[in-house]
Specification:
By secondary structure, the protein is an alpha+beta fold. About 25% of the residues lie in helices and about 25% in strands.
């Protein structure tokens, strides 16, 4: 019986640099599993309307 590993792959240097660049710009970085790897998303939130 083969056990499937639930552990995600380690984040490499390029991915770490991408996360650092996103955070330096003042945005949030979101990491998601995709297949056997992962994707890094840049989350930009802006206020479109504020009352008060």
């Amino acid at each position: 019986m083969d056990k499937k590993s639930k552990e995600p792959p380690a984040i490499n240097i390029d991915a770490q640099q991408a996360i650092y660049d996103i955070i330096r710009r003042g945005n949030d970085a979101q990491i998601r599993r995709k297949g056997n790897g992962y994707i890094i998303l840049e989350v930009k939130k802006s206020i479109k309307y504020s009352s008060g």
